[in-house]
Write a structure and sequence with these properties.
Layout (H helix, E strand, L loop, with lengths): L2 H31 L18 H17 L11 H25 L7 H32 L4 E7 L1 H9 L3 H6 E8 L6 H10 L3 E5 L5 H14 L2 E5 L11 E5 L2 E6 L7 H20 L1 H14 L5 E7 L5 E7 L34 H8 L7 H7 L3 E3 L6 H4 L16 E3 L1 H4 L8 H13 L3 H16 L6
Parallel strand pairs: 1-2, 1-3, 3-4, 9-10
Antiparallel strand pairs: 4-6, 5-6, 7-8
Length: 463
Amino acid sequence: MLARKQEINLQLNELADAAILGAIFWLCHWLRFTGILRLDSSPDIPEFKYFVWVLAVIVPFGPFLLELQGYYQYPLEKTVWKSVSQIARASFWLLALLAASSFLLKLPIPSRSVILFFIMSAPLALIAKERLVTAIYKRTLKDGSVGERILIVGEPAKMAEVEAGFTHSQRLEIAVVARVPLVTDDMAPLIAAVHEHSVGRVLLAFGSIQLDVVQRAIEACELEGVEAWLCADFIRTSIARPTYELLANRPMLVFRTTPDISWALLVKSVLDRTLAALGLIVLSPVLLAVALGIKLTSPGPAIFVQKRSGRHGRPFTMYKFRSMHSNAEMQRAELAAYNVMSGPVFKIEDDPRVTPFGRFIRKTSIDELPQLLNVLRGDMSLVGPRPLPVYEVERFESTAHRRRLSMRPGLTCLWQVRGRNAVTNFADWVRMDLEYIDNWSLALDLWILLRTVPVVAFGLGAK
């Protein structure tokens, strides 16, 4: 679907297949070396170290030859027999490469039976892996666990034409949640649809070039923090910092305001969940002690549950240790006059709703620890813009503020390390969030995490 996403999936598949080929080759040698399987009259074969050069050819060149045969293309639409024929052709060229290496470099093949075992068993392992991964992916698509929700915006005839061009696999991976006709420069329907459906991508489809409408639509998507994909089969031009993608067999211009899909983002996601799981395990005694402390010092549940706005505004259930009295939400309207934060966010100094024990866990940020469960579930990240309650996001005064929703929310961000509650201007808060989004890198995440430690340890900026 996404060219960059396809590239990452291709590399992951090649790495997995390289590992499978290496493991199968070692297993074939072990079976022959121990005498469990034997196809020749030779009683013994050399140790595995004499076969390392064969492994050095198989592991890197096996996936490469499979790719040349189109093995990794259209996995959701391929039949088993198609895969078998592709693997057979790749196997032929792999054997030819091994023979050429042995002849030209004078490298001996200590046992042909090991090679024969490998050629018979490796295809079975590759097909089994491919079918298993495809079946799991199809099931997750049907369950709605993966896939992407998008809007199609533009001229009705062109929208229908583009949607009709989706391949079978693209129809499984993409859910068109709404189609918004756009023939004037009024962007209200587009913005309303983005808010209603919590999408991360808008596909712009116009039959003839309408620069004023296209420009307004891209600007609206930019302010919302969502990707704008322009169906560009009617124009050939160079636009500042665009990304070209292919969808429905048509060239697309992509205008991004958030980090593109990359290995760095994949590493960030893996680290988030790994560290969150470790944190929950290591801190479990602390979590239990805090929960007990809350129950003993004030009536009500130990965990506070609230709907927050996640990436692209999609609501999720966020968990915190309860630091206020159980009826705190009902008292918010009465305390509105004491709000010290400008904009839609509600914060007051010396909040009377906070319990004595709650004041301690807020000062030390211990109340945030249950959000490690949100990180483990994928709702949040360790580093990212702080998630706001849904009702506060709905009261954003400027549509530009919604761009802070374009990345997954986090436990900490620049706001925490540059003043925390000392920052009372919501515009400054948003500015720091957008600074993080526009300059994101793994190094920046690490810097923020390291800076967060002393901030939390000494309660800097906390009230």
